[in-house]
Design a protein that fits this description.
Helix content is 29%, strand content 26%. By secondary structure, it is of the alpha+beta class. The chain folds into four domains: 93 residues, Nucleotidyltransferase, domain 5; 160 residues, OB fold (Dihydrolipoamide Acetyltransferase, E2P) (Beta Barrel), CATH 2.40.50.140; 121 residues, Aminopeptidase, CATH 3.40.630; 72 residues, Ribonuclease E, catalytic domain (Hypothetical Protein Ychn, Chain: A), CATH 3.40.1260.20. Helix 1 links the parallel strand 11 and strand 12. Its cofactor is Mg(2+). GO terms for molecular function: endonuclease activity; hydrolase activity; metal ion binding; RNA nuclease activity; rRNA binding; tRNA binding. This is Ribonuclease G. Its main location: cytoplasm.
């Protein structure tokens, strides 16, 4: 895969766009306020040992002292072939003492009055592997269930293990090639060498290793792929990335480029407009057809329609052409929106089995560019294509959008007419339950106007029926479904 990365940096947010053939294919977003401390490595100082709690407080230069339990202090243990270990936790006083310096890693962020939770069992993760400096074996994620795949991955990784470097193969490595795993192993070894160098300098005012931010992670994850150019619009971040690539991914140093242009970097390939379109439910196809994408808690559904496309031959060919075009758009939207889990695709019905096979093949070819693991299960008895795509991070919609305060996530609002009838029923209910002289209805502008115009006859009849005055008051801040019936 060849392409270009655009890196847009602001103090509060970093965004990275992957462009292929001039079109946005992936978007990665990280907001500074949501970055935690988990994964950071510090050279901490023991400031207090608590024998009764079998724990110690550690100064890692945060507002609150961090917490280290005896069970989280690494000691050399016998590790079985299956990765299990025999654990025996010694007394905390035999493990650490006040004033002692030791290397620790944050496993839980500070919360409220509690400080960060620490461990001395250091691990450093990359895209496919996790380095375990205190181990010497290779482990495979339990989520990789295929026995032959587990054996293949272990055979690749074992040669990179030694007395000071053990590795765990992550779930994302399923299907990864030998070269990709080699790049990850080499990268992690270089990172660990730098961590040890910083430890020797007794760097205690800042982390000796910080879980890298989005701009650095993207470079790490794209190591080994063909990128024509990486443009960064922040001089500070550019300088940091130059130093990072020179140390860890030298193959990418030559493609880094600082972008000082006055025009926003995301305007170069119409990225901002593409992001807005990626939040739309309806995606237009060049032919005039369109997709409807609905993301729910359980699954994502995609419906294909011919729309304005009438074709040039017959209906069957028109349907086939629309479905083939849709496969390219679907593959791109899944990557761009980062949609994962179960995905149900409702292609336009095709009578020809040959057309069905060709549409499936087209979808598989379009998805082949996707680095995320996926599985396509073909047409079901109902004519639906079922597929899955591994969840790697939050979807674009979940990152950029929140729940609508008016519809509470339903995506629908009751009509003005429906709300008016609810109000009339509520007045009858309240009148039967309580003794009141008159009623005031507070409702949105649209509902109030409807009660005083379209539904005035019904409102007048209700006044006669209950024998009481009903006033309508507009409340501009109310949404369409909100109303209050107040007794006077």
């Amino acid at each position: 895969m060849s392409g270009e990365l655009l890196v847009n940096v602001t103090p509060s947010e970093t965004r990275v766009a992957l462009i292929e053939n001039g079109v946005l294919q992936e978007l990665h977003v990280e907001r500074e306020a949501k970055r935690g401390l988990v994964g950071n490595i510090y050279l901490g100082k023991i400031i207090r040992v608590l024998p009764g709690m079998q724990a110690a407080f550690v100064d890692i230069n945060l507002d609150k002292a961090a917490f280290l339990h005896a069970s989280d202090i690494h000691s050399k243990l016998m590790i079985n072939e299956d990765g299990s270990e025999v654990e025996q936790v010694p007394d905390i006083r035999t493990l650490v003492h006040e004033g002692q310096y030791l290397m620790v890693q944050v496993v839980k962020d500070p919360l409220g009055t509690k400080g960060a939770r620490l461990t001395t069992d250091i691990t450093i993760a990359s895209r496919y592997l996790v380095l375990m400096p205190n181990a010497s074996h290779a482990g495979i994620s339990q989520r990789i269930e295929d026995v032959s795949e587990r054996t293949r991955l272990k055979d690749i990784v074992v040669p990179y293990c030694d007395d000071k470097h053990g590795f765990i193969v992550r779930t994302a490595a399923e299907g990864a090639g030998e070269l990709e795993l080699k790049h990850d192993a080499e990268f992690l070894r270089r990172v660990w060498t730098k961590v040890l160098e910083r430890k020797q300098r007794k760097q205690i005012k800042a982390p000796i290793y910080q879980d890298i931010s989005l701009a650095f992670r993207v470079l790490r994850d794209f190591f080994g792929t063909e990128l024509e150019r990486i443009r960064i619009d922040s001089k500070l971040t550019f300088d940091q990335l130059v130093e990072f690539t020179q140390e860890f991914v030298p193959n990418l140093s030559s493609v880094l480029e600082y972008y000082p242009g006055e025009r926003p970097i995301f305007d170069l390939f119409d990225v901002e407009a593409e992001i807005q379109r990626a939040l739309d439910r309806k995606i237009m196809l060049k032919s005039g057809g369109y997709l409807i994408i609905d993301q729910t808690e359980a699954m994502t559904t995609i419906d294909i329609n011919t729309g304005a496309f009438v074709g040039h031959r017959n209906l069957e060919e028109t349907i086939f052409s629309t479905n083939v075009e849709a496969t390219q758009a679907i593959a791109r939207q899944l990557r761009l929106r980062n949609l994962g889990g179960i995905i149900i695709i409702d292609f336009i019905d095709m009578e020809s089995e040959d057309h069905q096979r060709r549409v499936l093949h087209s979808l598989e070819m379009a998805m082949a560019k996707d680095k995320v693991k996926f599985s396509i299960h073909g047409f079901s008895a109902l004519g639906l294509v079922e597929m899955t795509r591994k969840r790697t991070r939050e979807s674009l919609e979940h990152i950029l959008c929140g729940e609508c305060p008016s519809c509470q996530g339903k995506g629908k609002l009751k009509t003005v007419e429906t709300v008016c009838f609810e109000i009339l029923r509520e007045i009858v209910r309240v009148n039967r339950a309580y003794d009141a002289d008159q009623f005031i209805v507070y409702a949105s502008t649209a509902v109030s106007e409807s009660l005083l115009n379209d539904e005035y006859h019904n409102l007048a009849e209700l006044e006669v029926f209950i024998g009481k005055l009903i006033k309508v008051q507009t409340e501009p801040m109310y949404n369409q479904e909100q109303f209050d019936v107040v007794m006077m």
